[in-house]
Amino acid sequence: MADAVVTSPLAPATSRIRNRTIRRFLTHRPAVVGLCILVFVALVAIFAPIVAPYDPIKSDFSAIRQGPSALHWMGTDELGRDLLSRLIYGARTSLMAGVLPVSLALIISIPLGLLSGYVGGFLDTVLMRITDALLAIPFLVLAIALTAVLGPGLYNAMLAIGVAAIPVFLRLSRGSALAVSKEDYIEAARAGGNSSLRIAFKHVLPNMIPPLFVQATLTVATAIIVEASLSFLGLGQRPPAPSWGSMLNESQRFLTTMPLMSLWPGLAIFMVVMSINIVGDGIRDAMDPRHKS
Amino acid sequence: MTLGGFMLRRLASIIPTLIFVSIIVFSLQQLIPGDPAIAMAGDELNDEAVQEIRVKYGFDQPFYVQYFKWIGNVVVGDFGASYRNKMEVLDLILTKLPVTLQLAVFSMIVALIIGIPTGIIAATHKDSFIGTAANLFALTGVSIPHFWLGIMLILLFSVNLGLLPSSGYVPPWEDLRQNLLSLIMPSIVLGTGVAGVITRHTRGAMLQVLSSDYVRTARAKGVAERIVVSKHALRNALIPVITLSTIEFGQLLSGAILTEQIFSIPGFGKLIVDAVFFREYAVVQGVVMVTATLFILLNFVADILYFVVNPRMRSANG
């Protein structure tokens, strides 16, 4: 009963805020364009087997290092593989490498951050010390060091990126939990006789998610660049499977003879990362108009 | 609070962070699958030899004993040796670090020269085409994959125009001109990313200061807009930008990893990548530990700078 008193006025207010945020986001024209680009790239990645004109791995020695043509819109690489098809399949790797590590980091850091911020005490002190230490190691350095331990490969690289992203979200979710737990409605829930666990998961958790959402969007962009960096260094996606980073790695040897090989994957990374950053800015402005960029 | 008191308080918080960093760095090696003694034994793979290595390097000891032994050595600068380079890890780091520091300093100069004016323009021309272009530039700076930008610059300035060397590094004491030429492209590549961050912060800080009461008063008194921007607003807006630049300098050290790889610069970044490929964990540990320590110290310097230039902090802490 007490719970009903606390939650019922909140529910419509939350959905009102959400609707207002979505409306504000839709007025941010660059962010909407960015979102459309991302949806397009995601659809292309999902339907890669249907959209891609060729097999991205199959060599064609009769079509080695060709320029753009009606048959190969973006040209071919040193093994005669179609660059457009490799780019399309590479989008799968990049988007996956952006979303999966961030999801992993969120799954681990949200409950820990909630515990740390809401419960506090010794656990909070220890967790924050570890977070400080992890944050002192630059993101790429930590990801490289973890890949050194785990061994090269796409999934290990994604795991390394996810682990490297945990301290960022842990710090943020802890701060968020701490701020939310001081709000009047949490006090009201407490006065209503709800258990700590119930308050933490039912009231604090849903309200600490929005600020994490903006950071998650921006970290997806970072993760895509870090995966491309690791693959470029030869620590991520292994050949012959395509990823935008590994395509750039392969292109380096043909810089003088086949410059287009390095142009396309770089442009693709740039376009996706820029779109994510614009969408991130749009979400932040929509959630907090005072922060308008 | 006095500056000395503030420094002491910050220093006290650095020590536990460094201890935790060292535990993480040491734990990394423990996560490596397989027995390190077997890996080190190489061709001499018999039980006796493996056991000997295990005892010699203390692998048979509990984790905390191994850690204390390791940290004891690290404190006196002994990170172990690199078998590939046949050098002590610390000596190796000390040879490579100045190269990366030179690159980072040049990149920061590029970032400040581009970032601050662009940020001012973005704030003063907020609602015009120029302001939008400045914003777009900042966004491009933070979104572009820098290793790709490096490849594109090599393609343009080295391959097509033949103006700049595509790779390599010459120490300044050997040939200063060649040294500067070899660092132009890497500094631009590394600097533009930070320039994007600095532009965004300068713009934010300028917008805040330009809407403050004392700027409004200066305008009301009829002070020329140019003076308002350069004398009244900029001086205050630069405070957070300077502290941010100190922290960003730490980011440059890690950003240098890819730039050094592309331009074949034998610095700190290339050292860690090579160490990963040759599975030289002592080098990886050394580089990560030194990078984190530098990063923590730069944050410390940023805090001190902020304390010195911002009188409000003194009363707030006092």
Compact summary:
Chain A is built from eleven helices and no strands. Chain A has 293 residues and is an all-alpha fold.
Describe, in plain words, how this protein is organized in 3D.
The complex is a heterodimer of chains A (293) and B (318). Chain A is mainly α and 293 residues long. Chain A has one domain: MetI-like fold (Orthogonal Bundle), CATH 1.10.3720.10. In chain A, 76% of the residues lie in helices and 0% in strands. Chain A has eleven helices and no strands. Chain A has helices at residues 2-27, 29-46, 48-51, 83-119, 121-135, 139-150, 154-181, 184-191, 196-233, 244-251, 260-287. The longest helix of chain A has 38 residues, at 196-233. Residues 1-11 of chain A have low confidence and may be disordered. Chain B is an all-alpha fold and 318 residues long. Chain B has a domain at 95-271: MetI-like fold. In chain B, 79% of the residues lie in helices and 1% in strands. Chain B contains 13 helices and two strands, in the order H-H-H-H-E-E-H-H-H-H-H-H-H-H-H. Chain B has helices at 3-31, 36-41, 47-56, 63-75, 89-124, 129-143, 146-160, 176-210, 213-220, 225-262, 268-277, 281-309, 311-317, and strands at residues 81-82, 87-88. In chain B, strands 1-2 form a two-stranded antiparallel ribbon. The longest helix of chain B is centred in the last third of the chain and has 38 residues, at 225-262. The termini of chain B are close together. The mean pLDDT of chain B is 86. Chains A and B meet through helix 5, helix 6, helix 9 and helix 11 of A and helix 1, helix 6, helix 7, helix 10 and helix 11 of B.
Describe the SSE topology.
The complex is a heterodimer of chains A (293) and B (318).
Chain A: H1 2-27, H2 29-46, H3 48-51, H4 83-119, H5 121-135, H6 139-150, H7 154-181, H8 184-191, H9 196-233, H10 244-251, H11 260-287
Helix pairs in contact in A: 1-11, 2-4, 2-11, 4-5, 4-7, 4-9, 4-11, 5-7, 6-7, 7-9, 8-9, 9-10, 9-11, 10-11
Chain B: H1 3-31, H2 36-41, H3 47-56, H4 63-75, E1 81-82, E2 87-88, H5 89-124, H6 129-143, H7 146-160, H8 176-210, H9 213-220, H10 225-262, H11 268-277, H12 281-309, H13 311-317
Antiparallel strand pairs in B: 1-2
